[in-house]
Design brief:
CATH architecture of one domain: 2-Layer Sandwich
Number of strands: 22
Oligomer: single chain
Structural class: alpha/beta
Mean pLDDT: 88
Largest sheet: 6 strands, mixed
Shape: globular
CATH class of one domain: Alpha Beta
């Protein structure tokens, strides 16, 4: 993989990249963004860099106009106009201000390729060329995209951490915190509203977009996040009697949100309602986006997250459940974990008994995201360092495995493995029980869609080896990226998606794993770090 070496102020960043993207986009995937104001069209002239070494494409007409021949001869270029194909060394002349938000790119939402063309709505608006925003409100991460309503084209996207994390990394801890104090509940609500506004402002200032022409916004999320956003009925989710029924969590004052975000004052803001206590509108959006119910029986969608949701189509009924996977898949809850962001180990390979790490956007290791943890555990088992019960073997001295030594030592502890095993077992039990309820086995599966940021870098073979996914042909498993955001975009854009949702809700049958008599037995079987048993 080619390497970009970027000097930014007093630091130097080493950034592996995949050819085919502009230098601006490559930098946008890191904490070291270059200043910009025109969505990368080359019109603003802000994203100036200086090429020190490496071969790049010839200057574009926009660069001749905005920079002039003298600057171009010195190697000064516009990052949005440079398309590097090989190793490159640059100086970033106009670094962007620090931001909590990262840019979404095409490889992070592969599900957009799955969807066939839907008829766009006819939008009647007082605004010429109106825009819309889709939001996926996750427990760990908030993602949003800005679209042109007339064409459905995505113009920009951002993702960042849910600021409610300080009240707890998991859903139940946040619900308890909200129930204990009205002030805490109001704080959590306001944090998310402000975060969405910050992300839109980041898009507006960086991409040169006027938020006043945003006339529609659609939002999906798991039920708990929606109750905390609306400030309504979050206490019901602490009662098991509410888990199988609809929870009214739609907000009643979205007009104030439009004012807070500085978008079109009469913008239509729609929060898509969840199905039940722990089956949110994010899963429904994912089902609509991947169209699992439009295929033959045997399609499975797993939306990995802190609250992992699973849907199985048997040809007539969509069996759905949620599994308390915990935050391990999203890079939290373990001593070495961080989200899938720059500095995270996202892939681990085993070469001649030695582990080799691949790091997102930067050579300096800061921690390990979910996909990296899967690879690490799979390779520790393969190399005889970790047993199938989750205990380190005699090949690993002490109670932990040392990952990185240096300024910041990183370890995988026995406690980290335990956290992963419980998360894996919850997912495995959910899959097994849905298959059992539908009268099916893994042999009947012909398609598995993996949703969530976690799935973006997932090594399917390693996930199967340690029992996270059923043992079917790997070419039947699709890494779909953020299915919730993709589905939310179609709710925003197309009345057909809304009709699909209405039909879908009539086909759903919800399974509460806690009420299944054999749950504990199946859960304990799935604790072993070995391939999932077929049926």
């Amino acid at each position: 993989m080619p390497l970009l070496i970027a000097k930014i102020e007093k630091s130097e960043r080493r950034i592996p990249f995949t050819p085919g993207r502009s230098l601006r986009d490559i930098l946008d995937a890191t904490e070291s963004r270059v200043r910009s104001g025109c969505r990368g069209s080359g019109a603003c002239g802000f994203c100036r860099v200086q090429i020190e070494a490496g071969k790049v494409n010839e200057p574009t007409p926009n660069e001749y106009t905005l920079l002039g021949s003298a600057r171009l001869e010195k190697g000064i270029r516009l990052a949005c106009q440079v398309m590097p194909e090989d190793d490159l060394r640059i100086v970033v002349l106009e670094p962007a201000p620090k931001s909590n938000w990262r840019s979404l790119f095409a490889e992070e939402d592969e599900v957009r390729r799955i969807k066939t063309s839907l008829t766009l709505r006819e939008f009647q608006s007082e605004v010429e060329h109106p825009y819309g925003v889709a939001v996926d409100l996750g427990t760990t991460r908030i993602s949003l995209s800005l679209l042109e309503l007339s064409s459905g084209k995505r113009l920009a996207g951002r993702y960042g951490l849910n600021p409610q994390m300080r009240f707890g990394s998991d859903i139940m801890t946040r619900l308890v915190a909200a129930s204990e104090s009205q002030i805490q509940a109001q704080t959590m609500r306001q944090q998310v509203i402000e975060a969405i506004g910050e992300a839109m402002l980041d898009i507006a200032t960086r991409e040169g977009i006027n938020l006043k022409i945003v006339t529609r916004l659609a939002l999906v999320g798991n039920t708990a996040m929606l109750t905390l956003l609306s400030g309504r009925n979050y206490g019901m989710l602490l009662q098991p009697s509410s888990w199988m029924s609809y929870v009214d969590c739609l907000p009643q004052d979205t007009e104030s949100w439009a004012v807070s975000w500085d978008i079109y004052p009469r913008a239509r803001i729609e929060v898509i309602a969840p199905l039940a206590g722990f089956v949110g509108s994010d899963l429904l959006a994912g089902v609509v986006a991947t169209r699992v119910t439009e295929n033959e029986a045997g399609a499975l969608l797993i939306d990995f997250g802190t609250n992992s949701e699973i849907a199985l189509w048997d040809g007539q009924t969509l069996w759905v459940t949620s599994a308390a996977g915990g935050p391990a898949f999203e890079g939290s809850g373990t001593s070495c974990g961080i989200p899938a962001e720059p500095g995270a180990v996202y892939r681990v390979s085993l070469e001649n008994g030695e582990l080799d790490f691949a790091v997102i956007a930067d050579g300096k290791v800061r921690g390990m995201c979910g996909s990296g943890l899967i690879d690490l555990i799979a390779n520790l088992v393969k190399s005889g360092r970790l047993g199938k019960t989750g205990r380190f073997t005699s090949n690993v001295p002490g109670e932990c495995f040392k990952l990185v030594e240096g300024e910041q030592n990183l370890y995988l502890t026995k406690g980290d493995v335990d956290v992963f095993q419980r998360a894996k077992a919850a997912i495995g039990a959910g899959i097994n029980i849905l298959l059992e309820k539908a009268g099916m086995g893994s042999r009947n599966l012909h398609r598995i869609c993996i949703g969530g940021a976690f799935g973006q870098f997932l090594n399917v073979g390693n996930a199967q080896d340690i029992g996270l996914l059923p043992n079917i042909q790997t070419d039947l498993i699709e890494l779909c990226g953020n299915t919730a955001l993709a589905g939310c975009e179609w709710f925003l854009l197309s009345s057909e998606a809304t009709k699909s949702l209405e039909i879908l809700t009539e086909q759903v049958k919800i399974i509460n794993l806690a009420q299944c008599d054999d749950f504990e037995d199946i859960f304990f079987k799935n604790l072993y770090i070995e391939p999932m048993a077929g049926s």
